[in-house]
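quick one, 276 residues, struct below
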Amino acid sequence: MLSKILWEAHVPLVVVRSYGMIGYIRVQIEEHAVVESHPESEMPDLRLDRPFSALQKYMDSLDLESMDNKEHSHVPYVVILYKYLQLWNQQHGAPPKNYKERKAFIELCKTGMREKENNEPEENFEEAVKAVNTSLLPTSIPSGVQSILNKAASITPSPTTKPFWIMARALHEFVTSEGRGALPVRGTIPDMTADSEKYIKIQNLYREQAAQDADWVLRRVQELSQQLGPRKIVPSLDNDVRTFCKNSHALRVVKGKSITEEYKGSINLGEIGYSK
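---
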């Protein structure tokens, strides 16, 4: 059977049939790796609970209390959240973890809000308050991505290793060393009310850190690839690795079944939503 031969040879098979106005398509593939999965709800990667050194140094250099009203009302909300998170941690020993603590943290942020000349609240502080639930989440690795890293850790690269798994192996090594348990910085930040100078400065800090993290992974991919011999499989390194790192929080691997295997077993009607 063609499907069995191609499955054993690790070659994808696409079966298409048409009956007049009706038809179907069936893809037989052992594994499909997804790098750019475009998740519907994506939280910003601000690292406020564990800021990298360049970000922390810049944030610490800013003093909200000494700013005049105009400058104060144009500080990016990421700075506001960082400053009040430091104050909160001094008082409580750890970032807010639940609804009650986050509500109390919001009230703490509001204590620093000043009224503008028209007696309206500062937009940047209002943005900070709205961003608490999404921007103060602990920096962590999603369970699905962690499963991929665990598998990558057990892989010994060979000439037949797919580029995805070479990059995943390098990513695993980054997480356990340079990343100190975290994925590479994504390098993007949300839009926010701010003066151009400070916003661009912070934006560049995130971008530069993302580039440094991707460079580390890239070097490791190159080293692993050089070990593969004359039949080595090397991705188009620079762009592929940077895209891989930027989307590392949403990596997915979809496992397939062979058509032969499906015909051998009985169909589970529960899996297709059948009910009597």
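The longest strand covers residues 13-19.
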